[in-house]
Amino acid sequence: MLAKLTAKNQLTLPKAATAAVGPVEYFDVATRDGVIVLTPVRIQRADAVRAKLAELNLSEADIAAAVSWSRSRVAEPPSRYGVDAAKPTPRKSAKRKL
Prior knowledge:
- This protein has helices spanning 15-21, 45-55, 60-72, and strands at residues 26-32, 35-41.
- The chain is α+β, with helices and mostly antiparallel strands.
- The protein has a domain at 10-60.
- The protein has a two-stranded antiparallel sheet.
- The longest helix has 13 residues, at 60-72.
- The chain is elongated and about 55 Å long.
- The N and C termini lie far apart (71 Å).
């Protein structure tokens, strides 16, 4: 099977090749001795998050404390100009009278 690389570095994989690996949206790309190797990756987002939390040694209590801290700091940002940020003042027209 042949696949052509476009000027934008895009490659369309032959249908027979993708059918052989099943429904996959992402591929891990590696090079080995001048050969490009595509490995199908099935992303499981929740598992990836759990793995990262385990890697960082974070407990449920750590996460709850971080969320609580974050929510306690949410407030309307102070206005830079002393005006209500929710109600912006209308701007004057940029047109000049001649």
